[in-house]
Amino acid sequence: MRPVEERGRQGAQHAREGETGENRVVHHGERGRRVVDTGELRGKRRGNGANEAIAAAAILLPRETELAPAWKPARAGMERPRHALAGRPDTEGEIERRVREAWARGATEVCMQGGIHPSYTGAKYLDICRAVKSAAPAIHIHAFSPLEVHQGAATLGVPVESFLRSLQATGLGTLPGTAAEILDDEVRAVLCPDKIRTSQWLEVMRQAHRSGLRSTATIMFGHVDRYEHWARHLLRIRQLQEETGGFTEFVPLPFVHMEAPIYLKGRSRRGPTFREAVLMHAIARLALHPLITNVQTSWVKMGRDGVQTCLRSGANDLGGTLMDETITRSAGASHGQEMTPVEMERIIRSLGRVPRQRDTLYRAVPQERYRASFGAMRGSRRRAVAAHH
Questions:
Q1: Which residues pair with 45 in a beta bridge?
Q2: pLDDT-based confidence at residue 69 (cuts at 50, 70, 90)
Q3: What DSSP letter does each residue of 307-344 carry, written as one string?
Q4: Contact status, residue 156 vs residue 164, Cβ threshold 8 Å
Q5: What is the dihedral of CA 96, 81, 9, 16, to 10 degrees?
Q6: Backbone angles phi, psi at 203, to 5 degrees
């Protein structure tokens, strides 16, 4: 497969100036992240949809797994760093401790996702949900990619729909739209041949939405893909949203190449150009409108200047502050480990917009959570911020 030809300037540090919106609402929240091993529990808060508040998330907590922590699940083999962290999986007691810490620091959500641990069955995912709810009954669980849901159901010998109902019964609130990479099997055959196929990813999401579980949607782009693959991905997300209405937001994730094995083997490009990354946010806004009203940009991937450009170019969600961020840095990125909510609000206000925190489902967060997120110590959690267009 011929990689996409690079165009435009490389790197978010070359962000161009753009038009700033006037009196736009920017939602901000808190998302704390800490990564150990491959899986992770991430506490986060998200904000409302259009004209509503944005969310913050709190602490990203490691889930039990011995696979390498990577930007994408390590089984795909493309984002695993050479200095991967592999070690003893955390106990459920450790998960409970970190969830309690996340709640104390202002989290409204804990996110758990990762690669497939060879000894895990679906029962393990259920136990993890119970552990989280035991530690913080009011926290929202945003967990388990379609890859993990598919694998969990298969290990228990039950339909995906049945397994999703079991997860809901133990506290699962929403699903992350990760493990999507590029929803085109031509790309997946090269990039992640051991992951689920496009149709399987879409079917897990379809079943989740029908069961009342909402989810995010992502794209990880700029490796062995071409523009037509990006277009197919966007159209498939749009088509499923037309059918179910279950996606809360769309999150472009530029490929971080520096430590990616597929790049080190000379089989991929160096990630998207800055121009392409900005255009992905802009085109997503156009292609998904009015079905998905929230487009998130990540300063860890794009840099501080980059997210400002993206917020001028279609994005309305800014994610997020980080605690001991490992995934993207281990893949070779260097934009930093943390951004405080104060700084995130400053970025939003510099664009003439009003920052607001949101929860996972884009509702305004309680004032108690908002105050707790600002009162927590620097370096202890991750916040998600959104800017409304």
A1: 56
A2: very low
A3: HHHHHTTT--EEE---SS--HHHHTT--S-S---HHHH
A4: no
A5: 20
A6: -70, -40
- With cut-offs at 50, 70 and 90, classify the pLDDT of residue 29: very low
Q: 12-387 architecture in CATH? A: Alpha-Beta Barrel (3.20)
Q: Which residue is associated with the tokens 């998600």?
A: 384
Angstrom CA distances, 367 to 72, 141, 346, 356, 370, stand at 33, 20, 20, 11, 5
Q: Rounded to an integer, what distance in angstroms lies between the CA atom of residue 258 and that of residue 330?
A: 9
**pTM higher than 0.90 for the full model?**
no
Query: Residues 25, 102, 385, CA angle at the centre, nearest 5°?
Result: 15
Region of residue 23 (phi > 0: left; psi between -120 and 50: alpha; otherwise: beta): left
Domain boundaries of the chain, sorted by first residue: 12-387
- As a whole number of angstroms, the distance between CA 163 and CA 170 comes to 11
Closest of 150, 155, 254 to residue 199, by C-alpha: 150
Cα–Cα dist 87/103, whole Å: 26
* Cβ(116)–Cβ(146) below 8 Å: no
Q: How confident is the model at residue 223 (pLDDT cuts 50, 70, 90)?
A: very high
**Measured CA angle at 341 (ends 23, 272), to 5 deg:** 80
Q: Output the six-digit token pair for 148.
A: 């993990």
- What is the 8-class DSSP label of residue 358? B
| Euclidean distance between CA atoms 257 and 260, whole angstroms | 5
